[in-house]
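Researcher: Let's try something more involved. This one mixes different molecule types, so please make sure each is placed in the same coordinate frame as the others.
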Amino acid sequence: MSTETRAPVVTMRGQPAAVRTQSRGRPPSSPLEEFEQVYRRNVDVLMGYFARRCREPYTVADLTSETFVRAMDGFARFDPRRGSDRSWLFGIAAHVFARHCQQTAGGRAAAERLGGHRALDADEIEELAERIDAEREGAALMQRCARLPSVERAAIELVDLEGLSPREAALALGVSGVAFRKRLSRARSRLRKEHHGND
Amino acid sequence: MTKYTDNLWKDLAREHGAVLALADRPEPGRARQLSPRVLAGGTLALAAVGAAVTLGLTSTGSTPAPTTVSTAAYTITQSSSGSVLVTISRSQSIVQASQKLANMGIDERVTIQMAPGVAPVSGPVACKAAPGVTGPPVKVLLGTNGTEVIPLNTTGQNTGVGSWHLASCQLTGDSRGTGNTGAG
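Model: All components are placed in one shared frame. Result:
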């Protein structure tokens, strides 16, 4: 039996959350440019979020696209004083994915829901497939979290996989900071026990 | 960025960028503070016949769908053809309208000229484009009919009290001026 005491959950992405990564170069001169910076800072991690959940490149593409469409629609109301753009986007992504699950369970195909796929060429499909493949470890971790309550599972993912601070993750999930920290601690503890039990 | 994410951004900007270009963002998110094109002397400037007021106007790129942004001070409507209607509640509202228009990324300047009395013709005034100006057509409407009434005790030394109308409007290619052309 292993004597390892380190928690099995580690931060897989060293990058800080978006609020701490101000883009270099000249500042944005319009809301569109400002949103473009938000997009470029976050599109990869959001693709990863969906790539851990879906094995189909088109679905990952559709859900990523839908998340940013919603974000653009709501960008006028987004206030960075209340939280990072990344936590805001993860909040939207969680809603998009929940809706996707509901509608998939209802038998509606993603393409139908979204009014048809955005056309992807072979290179783009390959890129998305590679992204899905790169998220295997993360997807495996999420599999191990499958028995956790959904908020605890999301806490592990946003903090330990995506590198959000607990405060940012709490904002994304719409729970208080105190409640979030308890759930994160509980989730890590459960995973640790499970990990040792498997050893 | 990958080919997929680059292409996705192009699609998003093309299909949803027009609405976003007109969005009012909280100030902390606005990294560039556009210098307000202040009317030096305020309403006092309008006392002079032909006093000119300038504002920057966005003209780069066309908007695929009619878009309107409205506040108490101004309303900016860009039609599907790209033409722009700027409605200002009073001449001073040009300062706020100027900031919004600049946020839309425009590079032309609109100069409006005020004259005393009620507007002889009700409605918006079409701006005359200077040679070389390639931006969209612009019209400016002051109030609901082109006339602004400045009541007593609302201006310094009551200068400018009375009825004023938007007499003319020009479009020029340079929006980087101070906008203080009404000073004096």
